[in-house]
User: What shape does this take?
Amino acid sequence: MTQPLIGIIMGSDSDLPTMKEAIAVCSEFDVACEVAIVSAHRTPERMVEYAKSAHQRGIKVIIAGAGGAAHLPGMVAALTPLPVIGVPVPSRHLQGVDSLYSIVQMPAGIPVATVAIGNAKNAGLLAVQILATHNPALLQQVQAYRAGLTTMVMEKQAKLDELGYQKYLSNL
Assistant: This one.
């Protein structure tokens, strides 16, 4: 088994449908990750142990998804020297706005990078980009991925030009 470089944690298994996108990005870039349920409220000792030991176990970046009160990313960031990326998980009542506010409003000195509500894919991409700063092969993969995005947009533009906007819309 390859040493995991990215830790993907979540407060509950109900967060996994959102967090699976970060896992998929790690797989796409062939970056080993570990996935764990680590609740700030229900398993606080587990959270403390995870956060304090992650860097000693070879983890380089932590992605933490949480909904509702969403304390997990901030608490983990307070306990680890590693970069933490928070994913606000959509909640039933407030659609994740509560989670976003909780994660993004960290006090000075304890940063948590925060992505859009439910956007674990961007969290995965950001984690990979952080790793790529010291890995030339991974950096090339990131550059190729970005070039692919450009190609995709230009292909869509060519199709829009060809069909016109009404036909293009009918094909969506």
The mean pLDDT is 97. Helices lie at 16-28, 44-53, 72-79, 97-104, 120-132, 136-170.
